[in-house]
Structures are given as C-alpha cells and as structure tokens.
UniProtKB/TrEMBL annotation:
Pfam family, one: YPEB_PepSY1-2
Key words of the record: Coiled coil, Membrane, Transmembrane, Transmembrane helix
Coiled coil: 56-83
Transmembrane segments: 26-44
Region described as Disordered: 206-228
Start and end residues of each Sporulation protein YpeB PepSY1 and PepSY2 domain: 191-378
Native source species: Bhargavaea beijingensis
Protein name according to UniProt: Spore gernimation protein
InterPro entries noted in UniProt: YpeB_N, YpeB_PepSY1-2
Keyword Ribosomal protein found: no
Compositionally biased intervals (Basic and acidic residues): 212-228
Chain ranges of the Sporulation protein YpeB N-terminal domain: 48-134
Amino acid sequence: MDLVKTADQKNRAAYLLHVRDPMKKLIFILAYTVAALAIFSWSASAKNERLTLLLNGQYTNKLTEATEQMNELEQEVRKVLLYQDQSAAEEPLNNIWRLSSEIRNNLSSLPLDREFSSEWMNYLTRLGDYADLASTGAIPQEKWGKALGNAAANLDEFSTEWSSVTRGMFAGGTGPNSWFAQLESEKPDKRWADLGQAVKTYSESDFPLTASEHDEQKKKDLKNLNDEPIGRDGALSRFKELFPDYDGATVHVSQSEPDAPYPFYHIRFQDGARIGYADFTERGGHLLSLLVERPVGEDVLPEADIRGRAEKFLRQAGYDDLVFEESRENSHYWHLSFVRVDPDTGGKVFADGVQVKLAKDDGEVLGVNTMEYIQKEKIKAQPINPFDPEEFFADGTEVHSEELGYTANEELVQRLCHLLVVTKKTGGRTDTYRLMVDTETGEVLKSEILR
C-alpha cells in the first residue's frame, strides 16, 4: 500500500508540475504584454505632450508677435494722419501695408475662430490695399485721411477686445484637440463671435464698398462657382486622392455654418505627430487650403528638389496652367508662389495664384492656399498695340526682361500689360524697376523699385 501511495503522490506531483508550467508561461506573456502596452501608451502620451508643448510655444510666439504688430499698426495709422505732404506720409503708409500683411501671415497659421479670422483678414487686406493706393496718389488725401482716422479709433477699441479674448489662449495645458473642438463646436465662443461682428462693422464703416468692389466681393465669396455639390463623402474622397500619405490618419469631417462666407467642408486629421486640416468647397470639391503641423528635421533639400516636388503636387491636383513665380525660405520651410497663365495671351494673371509651403527636410507639402486661383479673374480681350521700349523710356534705361502680365487698374478691372524689369543709373547708383504698362493705353499701372 505504501508503494502504491508513493506512486500516486509522484504522479500527482508530476501532473501539477505539468499544469503549472504552461500557466507560468501564460502569466509571463500576459505580464509582458501589459508592460509593453503600458510602455507604448506612456511613449505615445509623452510624444503627444511634447507635440502639444511645441505647438503651444509656436502658437504663443505667433500670437504675441501679432499682438505687437497690431500695436505698431495702430501707431502707424495715427502717425500718417499728421501729414498733409504726400512724401512725408509715404513711409507710414508703406508701414501700414507691410504690417497688415505680416499680421495676416501670422494669424493664418493660428487655430482661431474661422468666422472671426475671415472678417479680420478682410479688414487687414482692405486697410493694407487702401494704404498702398494712398501712397501712389490713387486716393485723394482728404478721402484716405477720413478713412484712416476712423481706422485709428477702431483699432484702438479692437486691441482692447483682442487682448481680452486671447489672454492665456494657449496656456493651462490645452492642446490641439481642445483648440479644434472649439473651432468646430456648434456653439462658437461668444467672445469671438462678438469680436468678428465688431470687425465686420469696422469694415463697413471705414471702407465702404464701391459698385466695382461689390462685384469683386461676390467673386471673393465664391458666388460664381457653378460646379455640382460633392457631399461629405465626396470631400473625404477628394482629400484621400490628393493626400494619399494620410490614408491611415484619424479624420473628422464637418460642414461650414449656414452663415459662412461660402459653403465648404472642413477636414481635420491626425496621423502620428502630424496634426492638420484641409478645406474643400462644397461645389466642385476644390481645395481651398491645407495646413499641417509637425516637427521638422535638420536635413535640408536643395531648392530645386523642393520646387520639383511642389510642381508635381500641383499637377496631381489638376493645376496644370500654373508657372513658378517666386520663392522665399525660413529655417524650416520653403514658401513657393505660382501664378496662372492665360491660355489666349500667355500673360501671367498675378491675381490667380497658388501658394505652397514645403518642409525643408523631406519636401513634404505642409501648406496650400488656392483661394486666389479658385476665384479666377474674368479676362476680357484686349488689343496689344506696338510698344517700343527705346521710345518709351529715357536714355540710359536698360530693359532686362519683357513679358505679358495682368494687373488691376483703379476700377479693379484686370488689364493686360507689358511686364518689364529695367535698370537706370542715377546719381552714381543703379536702381532696378518693375513696371506694368497697359498694352492698349500705354498707361503705367504699376511701378516699383526692386531692392
């Protein structure tokens, strides 16, 4: 009996050992999996936190810079009102144009309320254009003096409201999800809505639209788009077609509000460290804009490669009537501008442009603005009369290039012009000029010194 009992005990021990061994393996695997998931979750959370801190820093800097520029803008508007003499007013008028452009550039990359942004961008554009026209004598002094006097008072009031609304906007641990959620909320922040309404009132009082400008505004509001509506699914398909690299991204599609300046679909996406959005028109699915935020590496591609990638993207997007016009760079990005070429005359339509932003490290397209291109100008036939530069310019003027291009006259009508780059030596210094001369009337519609 003892022998039998001993054998049973041995068999039972062997059985328990056999059972426990796989259990130990299973417990080990489960523990390893939990640990790996915890590490992955921590790593992803750390990356998101770093990205949020990075964007917070970038956005705070841009917001601070824009606020400082607004204060400068108000000072320049007040300064220009001192002068009766046109030459004395030239510098502050030029500063108004420059600052309004710089503020628009800073604000365009911030996640601000879209309705407010639209109204404020419009006001800054009109203020800058008004100052530019005033500097050339196209607007009588008493007219621009009254308009800019109103603008000075409105900018002072606006700066107070702006400081209140934006105080601590990117502080307190907020991140991209919070910003975009607020942008797409059905109930926008009342402070932004009030600020946008105030700016709209400023625009109507400071720069009332003329009959020609009313027609221009219809074009800006995309009233002339007659394409078929694409629907929400169509907008998403268009996004995936143009940006196949984001096929695995988390995507959210929303539609513009009924009172938006023009109907469009807003597509917000996140793909790893990339956060961005793309807007498409409701009619036709035209890409209005793209903005992507991500860390940029140190490797730098040559400008020729960057330009080639931009041209390839534009061809794939269907923009096959554009030519490269100019480029500029900063530490991480290239900004390239393209303009449409009229098929009948071969003239460059500068008002119909596309801007593309690309990363220097790998040439990825991180920004697109096609609004001007979508608002295509209606070009009327115009004669090209004989033009002899030697008779037109004074002795000693050297013509370096001549081509055709379009620019708007005082009535905002696009006119075909001889686009010339010339040099003239005066007082021991050689200046370079860029001129646009109407091909029919011979009138100089635009003249600028290139430095």
